């Protein structure tokens, strides 16, 4: 008997020792099995506008983390009731539940009940695969025990509720509450919490969106379980089970109109702030962007309409970007008519800019260098420079033309001549300053003839310099990024540099404003003041065909660029018309969005406004007569019909036998007197209008001989 007792005691002691060693082994192994990084759950980031309004979410898994204190007690109890009734009693593995499950499985002859605890489910979902092997179940148990050792029950339940999948792309209870009921998790009612608790077992089966009857049946079962476990009274069970399922589904809207903008945010986060795409998708960041929804949607919708794109077929493409003048924030961006996420963003594809390049490559540098002024005369002749002979698009040349008129009429010959005068080196230095370094060395730069081209984004930001008193800074999409703790981890802090004087910038603005009102950019309607420049490049394979068509323009507050063309232009794919189409589309985008309507340009402090151009008219007739003045003096009076523009100067010339000379000038009037005249003189007189802006003299009248005397 003593031997038996001794043996039993020894066996018991060995069992205890082995159990203790096993427990130590589990704890020891757990340190290697649990990867703490995996407990950091993927969390959706969101884009918000400047006012904090949510625009969209970006994520791998649509999850927003919630603290357990925000989850109502009865919602927590609903999950515990159905998933792990002894959650607050076991230490990771519930032996009673496992035994009960085995017993029921044996009676049923198949698997009818699971024995996994909430902690085991957390272990499986975060650390393990879904395979059914014994080794996987062993790892699950080891991890569960160690999780219980490291974390409190509240923390484990919080992690579970944040991790579990609720169907339709919603991960975690906060996203589920938003999806199914469009409310915060803290606002969930008892019946809503019970319904959500029933979904994770089989989201496709128990989703109230796809199967409301089954979801209600499972909800009612969970309510009964809550009653059995004394979480709620049976009276509450019956009353709550009698309620219908009421959803307010907050379906995520498909937003193809945002695709370009989101991808550009991804690119900027990586390039400027070293935040990878994956980190942005998983990190739960709040990204503040300057996007304006009305403008973005207006641009996207109009880009879908074929009538704006005059191609040989419906495959003609386009790109559009709009920025805030002062901040450089991108308000809208369209990378193509059929842009797909991570696709070809045509805002970043270099194109030949055509005549839109003239203001930044030629005219602004010419004014800033003090070599020319807006009304300086430029040569408008068909000249040859080495082997390069630029031609005006209409093959019309006037000999001399003011810079103002050269811009308005888009004179090619004048632009190239001006570049030859200021020098290619000077031009390239200014281009470098506005974000357009180029390697080209020829005078074709004046007309946008570049070896590699420039992008719509570069063009818009370069023109923005005209709107900021000549200051240049980089554009941006990301205003700031905050992490889940609300800390700012990235912020746009622009570096500003002066490229042009405020006077040069304003002179360019006024001239480009006339391009829209009087020149090549008149197509379309816009109820506000708009400045800009058109541009196009020809496709030499077919007469009249266009390869690239542009409009780059700005208002008092926004600046943008719009390009049209084909990704590959050939004899089957080309534009049938030029820059009038992007000009109209640009105006219509702003008009449809009701943006910048009836907004005028304001003159910056300290600059002189650019006068409108003086247009000289021929003098039809000059009348002359002698008149008597007091003291017996005789005066010759010349009269003609003056123009309505009182800035016009009139020059009076006298012709004698020996010479012709200027005897006087008057401004804004058609009257001139020559006192002490010799009535017996054979002198004749003529009048010529004179443009004081360009220093051009108009066509003079024929010389006339004064008429007979008349009384005063």
From TrEMBL:
Matches recorded under Gene3D superfamilies: Biosynthetic peptidoglycan transglycosylase-like, DD-peptidase/beta-lactamase superfamily
Bilayer-spanning residue ranges: 7-29
Catalytic reaction list: [GlcNAc-(1->4)-Mur2Ac(oyl-L-Ala-gamma-D-Glu-L-Lys-D-Ala-D-Ala)](n)-di-trans,octa-cis-undecaprenyl diphosphate + beta-D-GlcNAc-(1->4)-Mur2Ac(oyl-L-Ala-gamma-D-Glu-L-Lys-D-Ala-D-Ala)-di-trans,octa-cis-undecaprenyl diphosphate = [GlcNAc-(1->4)-Mur2Ac(oyl-L-Ala-gamma-D-Glu-L-Lys-D-Ala-D-Ala)](n+1)-di-trans,octa-cis-undecaprenyl diphosphate + di-trans,octa-cis-undecaprenyl diphosphate + H(+); Preferential cleavage: (Ac)2-L-Lys-D-Ala-|-D-Ala. Also transpeptidation of peptidyl-alanyl moieties that are N-acyl substituents of D-alanine
Penicillin-binding protein transpeptidase domain residues: 318-590
InterPro entries (UniProt xref): Beta-lactam/transpept-like, Glyco_trans_51, Glycosyltr_51/Transpeptidase, Lysozyme-like_dom_sf, PBP_transglycosylase, PCN-bd_Tpept
Residues in Glycosyl transferase family domain copies: 52-226
Name of the protein: PBP1A family penicillin-binding protein
Species the sequence originates in: Metabacillus rhizolycopersici
